[in-house]
Amino acid sequence: MAPEELIRLAREAMTHAYAPYSGYYVGAALLCADGTVYQGCNIENASFSPTVCAERTAFFKAVYDGKREFAALAVCGGKGGTVTGYFPPCGVCRQVMREFCGDGFPVYLDGGPEGYQVKTLAELLPSGFEAARYMR
Ligand code: THU
User: Fold this and answer.
1) Which residues contact 67 (CB under 8 A, 6 or more apart)?
2) Is the CB of 41 under 6 A from ligand 1?
3) What confidence tens digit (pLDDT) does each residue in 49-86 have?
4) Interatomic CA distance for residues 41 and 15, integer angstroms
5) Is the pTM of this model over 0.90?
6) Is 83 close to ligand 1, i.e. is its CB under 6 Å away?
7) Which numbered atom of ligand 1 lies nearest the CA of 43?
8) Residue 38 to residues 9, 73, 107, 122, 125, Cα–Cα distance (Å)
9) Residue among 4, 55, 114, 130 flagged as catalytic
10) CA of residue 54 to ligand 1 center, whole Å
11) Out of 27, 76, 84, 98, which could bridge 13 as a Cys pair, Cβ 3.0 to 4.6 Å?
């Protein structure tokens, strides 16, 4: 699937956001190795800390369905759902990606008028914690 199509699906996912506190709408589209796509949005909470990001919503939906291999992720976000620049994944979401994805996993960052950027997971989370590598 072309990056532009995955970004289009992330933009669609963004419209599902529940963000009454920050006003930032975030969308993610996760392409599985088998070609299926899982979309996620941020879901906020009055107590703030239970808020979940768009990226984790997408990953957790996919993992629940038995998916374990992933090919790419697209992410977009912006105030009121308008994408004016890049909205890179937070550290917690990067760590969730690390659980299932390798160094070369590509993340497409939608920059709106700036086009999109591709970052690998290794670029986003260098020296990340990985059970297989450190717990021995
Ligand atoms: N947010 C995401 O959905 N993904 C990220 O990686 C960063 C932050 C959401 C959480 C919150 O609802 C809003 O953006 C502002 O922090």
Assistant:
1) 32, 33, 34, 36, 38
2) no
3) 999 999 999 999 999 999 999 999 999 999 999 999 99
4) 8
5) yes
6) no
7) 12
8) 9, 9, 14, 22, 22
9) 55
10) 7
11) 27
